[in-house]
Amino acid sequence: MDHIARPDSHSLAPRPDLALARDCVTCNGWGTVVKPGGRLQLCAACQQPTSASAVTSPKS
Q1: Higher model confidence: residue 57 or residue 38?
Q2: Coil/strand/helix, residue 31
Q3: Whole-prediction pTM value?
Q4: Distance separating alpha carbons of residues 46 and 32, to the nearest angstrom
Q5: DSSP codes, the chain
Q6: What is the DSSP letter of 17?
Q7: Contact at 8 Å (CB) between 47 and 19?
Q8: 1-47 pLDDT per residue, tens
Q9: Phi, psi of 22 (to 5 degrees)
Q10: Ordered alpha helix ranges (H), the chain
Q11: pLDDT at residue 6 in the model
């Protein structure tokens, strides 16, 4: 049997930071939660977006 990609499969699964997710009770340590329709989304309780400029910019 052949498997056909779903039309919405062009989006990649989110990549959580497992160190942040380790003790999270919302996602049980996975870093993602399943939303309606079967889509994965980063857990709002433990996966906080970081500013790339804050991480990469050296102090002047």
Answers
A1: 38
A2: coil
A3: 0.59
A4: 9
A5: ------TTTTSPPP---HHHHTT-TTTTTSSEEEPTTS-EEE-TTT-----HHHHHPPP-
A6: -
A7: no
A8: 565 555 555 567 789 999 999 999 999 999 999 999 889 999 999 99
A9: -45, -50
A10: 18-21, 52-56
A11: 59
Please tell me the distance from the alpha carbon of residue 53 to that of residue 51, in angstroms, as a whole number: 5
- Amino acid at site 55: V
Report which of 2, 39, 31, 37 is spatially closest to residue 15, judged by C-alpha positions.
31
d(CA 34, CA 23): 18
Selection from 16, 25, 14 nearest residue 47 by Cα: 16
Query: What type of residue is 49?
Result: P
- Both tokens of 32, joined, read 């993602």
